[in-house]
Amino acid sequence: xxxxxxxxxxxxxxxxxxxxxxxxxxxxxxxxxxxxxxxxxxxxxxxxxxxxxxxxxxxxxxxxxxxxxxxxxxxxxxxxxxxxxxxxxxxxxxxxxxxxxxxxxxxxxxxxxxxxxxxxxxxxxxxxxxxxxxxxxxxxxxxxxxxxxxxxxxxxxxxxxxxxxxxxxxxxxxxxxxxxxxxxxxxxxxxxxxxxxxxxxxxxxxxxxxxxxxxxxxxxxxxxxxxxxxxxxxxxxxxxxxxxxxxxxxxxxxxxxxxxxxxxxxxxxxxxxxxxxxxxxxxxxxxxxxxxxxxxxxxxxxxxxxxxxxxxxxxxxxxxxxxxxxxxxxxxxxxxxxxxxxxxxxxxxxxxxxxxxxxxxxxxxxxxxxxxxxxxxxxxxxxxxxxxxxxxxxxxxxxxxxxxxxxxxxxxxxxxxxxxxxxxxxxxxxxxxxxxxxxxxxxxxxxxxxxxxxxxxxxxxxxxxxxxxxxxxxxxxxxxxxxxxxxxxxxxxxxxxxxxxxxxxxxxxxxxxxxxxxxxxxxxxxxxxxxxxxxxxxxxxxxxxxxxxxxxxxxxxxxxxxxxxxxxxxxxxxxxxxxxxxxxxxxxxxxxxxxxxxxxxxxxxxxxxxxxxxxxxxxxxxxxxxxxxxxxxxxxxxxxxxxxxxxxxxxxxxxxxxxxxxxxxxxxxxxxxxxxxxxxxxxxxxxxxxxxxxxxxxxxxxxxxxxxxxxxxxxxxxxxxxxxxxxxxxxxxxxxxxxxxxxxxxxxxxxxxxxxxxxxxxxxxxxxxxxxxxxxxxxxxxxxxxxxxxxxxxxxxxxxxxxxxxxxxxxxxxxxxxxxxxxxxxxxxx
Length: 830
Description:
Heat Shock Protein 90; seven-stranded mixed β-sheet; alpha/beta; 14% strand; five-stranded parallel β-sheet; Rossmann fold; 830 residues
């Protein structure tokens, strides 16, 4: 290798010298004491010699720079002193002491060459002693004994030299290998980062162009289907890349597990929605069985919990052609927190017993011939197992080949709010529901039976009155009872299938004038119902049922999802997009055109700096990796030059560098937010709404099939906030509750991050960053009606701008507490 690794000595040079000197003093001191008792006439001579040689040793150690000669002189002095003093006191110990001194000293020497020199010098000393002091030696011991001692000593010294030299070579080899591994890991990390960037950049163009195509009006079904196929294939490729990146981080031990509060219901809803999209038209019933008493807010790594459940649900969908998939969630109290238990079971193909031990091996695909049509890298379960274990949990599996599998895990989680995940606003006795499921659509008898038991348990968990129709005769009897106003049939809600509604449309439209009629349909079903008919997309489970009963919003996906709703427009806003790829700029421009935002584009960071000097922008979308000057360098120049650049302008990292930790890296280096390529529309909308000036954003009526269960004439004070004036908030949205709830949700979801950013800016004393954060909080808080929080943020902004640090410190904690209470208030209604 070109760069040889310098091997560290066993001990430092200064410590080694001190040990040598102490060893010298100990050995010679022994002879001085012996002379004092046995040969008093030479005591002074021994002491003077010892001190003189000791002084020379100290001088050599302090003055001489060459380690080799320094050691040779020290060893020679020590050996000579041992012989001279030993001869004067007429003891045999002097010869043996030489080996004692040299044997101990040699183990601490700094370089292999000194070990050899020390050994040779010790051997010569023994031979010289015999030649010079033969008579003295033979008076004490026989010649054979002395010869034997010399040979044994030489062998011992040679052995020590060999071991020390081998030891140092091994240390050098190990250190060299360690450095090679470190370099290899760095190279691998760099490769994955570059791979992420290089693949995500063209994929951004592919997926982005598909999004633009899908936004075009009057598309033929063929074009729309092809565009959706291209987009989904691109996203599948990105999912594979993300798996590889995650696995790399886990293997290198660099994966960080967050400990933050998160809404369990949000995780469940998102995972179930994703599973239903992946299921497509497969004849599979998805059942979600969650305990109604589980804590609403847990503390842990929300993203990783979501990833684990998504992986397990995704595998269940992949390997199940028909039947059912069941997601079960429970929690058990454990100390101050809970054990979150999750089980995903299916009626899929199952796993052979001999394959179970290979299941969690990386890149391993079982029964490859049978599953050749199933996509995947074989990393999903390997990552899942490592994530579970990384959070101190355990993953279990049981499976029967040909019948299905059951994956379960438990992970300890903290509890931020012990309020139950499900809470009905009205007394339970006020609710009375009628369920008319589409049992006839389920061909599998065991699945049909399990589905019925699941619905019965659903009613029991809610603790309300309910009746489930199991056959056509019973259905007719119940409908007649309702029409005849039978007191026993005082239903508040009737849940029916889409097929049931279509078969008796006029009947249910009439009943809907008095009773809430809810139609449960598949997500890809085109449905046209009466004005009072409410739609629920499968699967119906505890959380969706409770939302309906509470009169809360239930958002579903219809076939028209590709024509994404325009949630807002901002014709007065001006955005600068910076990217060295013209296709990416075209995608960005096309996406922002939807919101009527004026967009300027430049292809380099240098051009961006010039444009930002001359133009007034409301927001900048900045790519990271660009030639000459990258995005991070550009932002650093902008933040450093307060004279020529607006320090309040939000700069968003729009980049394909989406490896683990990238977002934190950007936020710490002057960016306000992060969007990974390919651009997700929901993420783009969230970022734009968060950072564009509120007075320039015009919120529009939603075009998606967002179903609201609140009566139109409902009392304005439905939310009963303690920290928010909802009338003020609603006034910003023309009293449209759906839009107001969307902004509340956005404010809440961004709240944790904003709190961390505020706290970081405050604790590090970065008043510029703090001022930017409270400025943003001032506007967003006012938009939702959190007037008191907005006023507090405004005062903190003024104090930070004027460098009144004492005032900032004095009021920071009270503002953060108010912020916490506002988020807590919002959480109650979401």
